[in-house]
Amino acid sequence: MSRIRPFLLVAALIALPLAGCSSSGAALLRQIAQAIASIADQAVVSFDARRTQVAPGQERNINWDGAAVTVLTNGMTADFPPTLFRDGAGDRQIIVGGVTGETVAVSEDSFATLPGGGANASAGGGFAPLTGTANFTVFGSDTITVSFTTVDTAVAGLVHGFSAVFTDVEVAGRSGLRFFDREGNLLLDVRALALGSGQHQLVGAVFDTAVVATVIIDLGDNRNFGAGAENPGAGGDDYVVLDDFRFFLSALAVPATDFVATVLDIADAPLGRFDRRRLPLAQGQERNINWDGAAVTVLTNGQSAAFPPTLFRDGAGDRQIIVGGVTGENPIVSEDEFATALASGAGAGGLVPLTGTVNFAGIGGTNTVTVSFTTPDTAEAGLVHGFGAIFTDVEVADRSGLRFFDRDGNLIRDVRAQALGNGEHQFVGAIFNSAVVASVVIDMGDNGNFAAGVEDPIGGGDDFIAVDDFRFFQSQTPVPPTTFVAPVLTREDAVFARFDMRRLPLALGQERNINWDGAAVTVLTNGATADFPPDLFLAGAGLRQIVIGDPGQLVAVSENAFSTAPVVQGPEPSPSFRAFTSPVNFAVLQDGELAPARATVRFFLADQVTPALVHGFGAVFTDVEVENKCGLRFFDDQGNLLLNVRAVRDPNGANGISQFVGALFASAQVARVEMDLGDTDPPADLAVLDDILFFMGTVPAVD
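Above: the chain's sequence. Below: its structure in token form.
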């Protein structure tokens, strides 16, 4: 048994100013690094007492010797699943390792063998456990990243502190614990003591409030562990292993975190903070784009070139991100600081890359570039924890930044870039505690005039922006089906914006609308009510490939609120059937009169023959006065009901109120939509339809 060293209290009950702490602006902490000979030693007792004081009931331990671990080792050394204690094996909600490059392993033979078998060249170096038969370390890295989740397993959490038993630390300064807050800022660095071979010590810290989001365990020179013999006495490698953990169960979720800071190079602190906040959230899902890889430079060829929005979804690395592609967005990459893209040529601004030779912009037609994500099968829209990018040459406040949208198209965060000097770079981003981001809109100054105008921010004119390195996540979470039901007064209402924000990234360039007021329709109505050919938008009138109504069903459009019908006189003029977008709307007829019925919508490929699948559909319903009579039902190509979305009754029972009803899916799976327009069973109801928002089919349905 190792010799007990004198107790070392590096800092006891001292106050430090810490980000994210209590209203006092400070948190009391107790940090320890003390040699121990058993788990009953004073350092452990002291840590436990402080832990119970600040968060009773949240104390958690791992001694690495329980059944969940030893079933892995089987008397040898084995890889350790980072989420073992998050997903099961007790209510502990801790993630141990999993960051790229960290190969974590547990051992029952004091690391005499390597993970997967084979002899360890550094075996016998004093790696015996403090307790039981198993302990723990990392191969190929000097660090292990530890993070925490709340009890639902999905949401990143904050805790009061952490400690671990270090074994065989023989060189000062190389081993210890670094504590980071919710923003990735370093709170505290506790270094292990340099002790003799095989000796154990407890290293840890407890804070008065739950401020710790991440702990990085530094383990000597473990990047070489298993590859060579340990030789700290001669100035060589010091290999370190770990035993018992003492920590807290998180009861506090990490709030969303914004990042806005000037950067000079890719090693600057804001990027490091983003990475430290990012790494524990979704191990192995961290992804970057620096625009200088072969996939991009082959496009630029030393100049500026159009950028295919799906380049990083369909290839060029496992990144699953779509950059641009929304109607009007014209993303380009450049190796000449956009000299060939700007009408004013070279010297138009400080659009210099931060890294390498290539950067990125949206030019002409819009000031935005929309970013969205797909799961690794490339087909399904995905959710991620966050996103960040380098902005270059922002000189006017509030015009540039990032807007984050959730699965329903709701704005969940707006992070504005700073107004800096000509050519300066800054990092802008946000990270959430769970995967909630479906799309990000990059606002880029006045880039709508990029190809035509001259930058003149000092004179109050255009501010042109370039973007460089992206930092984000690969999505593992498909976007669930999203329903939209909301009253509307105009086409500018929020529900339309949310539907479009959710729709645009799903199927670039496939968004289609029908507002019933185009020439193809009004030529039929001629100011009255007229039969509508169900295949009008299949065979012509724009590339929309949609059929509205079943064969033989009488469908009608009207310019007079259905005060007349094609065959016989219909209902008396009524404001309840007025058009939403003047002057035409749409209904189903029976025996020449308006009828509460069902109209089926189907989708086709551009060949007008092959049935197609789409991502979703929405329509404006007018005059819904009875609950559950009207709405949309979505079916797949096997006839299975995917979703039933009901229109809502106006709570005041008013005639003529319009509402938008729709649904979107992460992948193209909708083969038909049945539009329920009321029925005759008491209490009877009858609705008419106006604007339709949908997709052009590009995915064939299974016949």
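The longest strand covers residues 26-36.
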